Amino acid sequence: MKTEYILQSIPEAKPGFIVILMYVAFIYGLFWGIDQCLTYLFYGITNEIVIKILNKILLIGFMFLNYKVVKYFLYLVRKQRERPVIYPVLNISREGMNYYPENKEIEWENISEIQIIDSVLSVTVDFNPKKDFKLNLSTTDLQKQMTQDRFEKLLKYHYKKEVYIYNTPSSCGCGC
Q1: What is d(CA 36, CA 46) in angstroms, rounded to the nearest whole number?
Q2: 77 phi and psi, to 5 degrees?
Q3: What is the mean pLDDT of each run of 10 residues along the chain (176 residues)?
Q4: How far is the C-alpha of 175 from the C-alpha of 31, rounded, in Å?
Q5: Helix, strand, or coil here: 38?
Q6: Gap between the Cα atoms of 27 and 19, Å rounded
Q7: Count of beta carbons in the 10 Å neighbourhood of residue 175
Q8: How many degrees, rounded to 5, is the angle at CA 63 between CA 57 and CA 67?
Q9: Any bridge partners for residue 105, and if so which?
Q10: Rounded to an integer, what distance in angstroms lies between the CA atom of residue 142 and that of residue 157?
Q11: For the sheet containing 104-107, what is the strand order?
């Protein structure tokens, strides 16, 4: 297929280092608050054996939670340092469409229906349902390359049947 238009993926948003540090500060502040509450609750206990047992249990619990926090912190730092991966998702040409994630090449004549409902492109093939796919257009670079209206016109230009488009109106949140 000769390429006319290619949609590419958008790299996922990564947490910044300030957010990561705020997360760690919040978690350790939460640890301190829990420690103060437990100290207040067990203040009246005078039995030395019970206090030693509770101290050991709390120490093991805090060590486990600390391990989980540090592990997640390192995961976030590692994720921050990864290079973004951008790959092609959809290729539109005169001959048809090519959906790269599942390696589906579809000619325009074989497509029975194209719908765009709330920025989700849905392509249906009658004779081969294995080639059907859905693509969330908000996870692509469509808005950087062209408007959604121009993309819809491009689809209508190549696909001679009707392209069904429906956008849910935004709500004010009042339940009306």
Answers
A1: 18
A2: -65, -45
A3: 70 73 82 79 74 78 83 83 80 85 84 86 84 84 80 84 80 65
A4: 40
A5: helix
A6: 12
A7: 5
A8: 145
A9: 98
A10: 17
A11: 5-8, 88-92, 96-99, 104-107
